[in-house]
């Protein structure tokens, strides 16, 4: 385990949450609560609905997030992904630390990178898969060849299914913007969407002795084109910010996946679709699991608004930017990053 400095270690290293009987000062937040009794809820879209394309357009314009059902991903695979994820985070703390990622790495065990942007730490732990998880998984189960292989096989299968679903959703989103299939064929090679890139992020939100003082994941927008999220059927943890309303809970929906738009989609749509501000809170009764598949182009591909292909009267709101470049801007300016690439 290679750590470059004590400060960087403190920033990205989780604590042994199971041993905590109270929330330490380092993890104590002042929270802006969410009204759990709100009647507002994110849209649910059936991909078999003949009106799916118009429903997706409305959801992307008004919410930036929606549930999707009849998505083609088997419930058996989703169950197995949750089982394997829970198994990983149920390992003894010292064993998980064997796969701890260094400060200059992305893959492996640790806390959310954006933890370093906040004065307080978060009540969560994660495991990030960028390419093959084999090296990190070997550190977790050094003597269990079968478990290592099975875990890797499940995650590869899940990631492949998520990427196929993301491609389907992108085609529907592009179509809803007035881009023809011919436009899409020309755009995809240019933007690199035929060679998608993005990490698979396994998240764990352990039971918290005092949820009123802790934050699972601080408010943020994703940088991806879109994120496909599976969350366990536990008390509501995910919340989104809706203008004019405040924080809205995203209640689990059995068999559904969550689709939320990232900043790159806001750029591609020329601001017509909005990336969604969201956060995760914790509870004192259930250990919540989520698995996020971030979908986007290769890091070095230039992105610029595609809406100009559908309507030449609209000037691009944002300058061209690569995902890699934008990540650096996001690391510095967080939720205000989009303001720094406006034309």
UniProtKB/TrEMBL annotation:
Native source organism of the sequence: Cannabis sativa (Hemp)
Transmembrane segments: none
Pathway participation: Hormone biosynthesis; Plant hormone biosynthesis; gibberellin biosynthesis
Swiss-Prot/TrEMBL keywords: Dioxygenase, Iron, Metal-binding, Oxidoreductase
CC cofactor: L-ascorbate
Gene Ontology process terms (BP): gibberellin biosynthetic process
Residue ranges occupied by any Fe2OG dioxygenase domain in the UniProt entry: 195-297
Family: Belongs to the iron/ascorbate-dependent oxidoreductase family. GA3OX subfamily.
Designated name of the protein: gibberellin 3beta-dioxygenase
Pfam families per UniProt: 2OG-FeII_Oxy (PF03171), DIOX_N (PF14226)
Enzyme Commission identifier(s): 1.14.11.15
Alphabetized GO MF terms: gibberellin 3-beta-dioxygenase activity; metal ion binding
Stored SUPFAM superfamilies: Clavaminate synthase-like
PANTHER family named in the record: 2-OXOGLUTARATE (2OG) AND FE(II)-DEPENDENT OXYGENASE SUPERFAMILY PROTEIN-RELATED
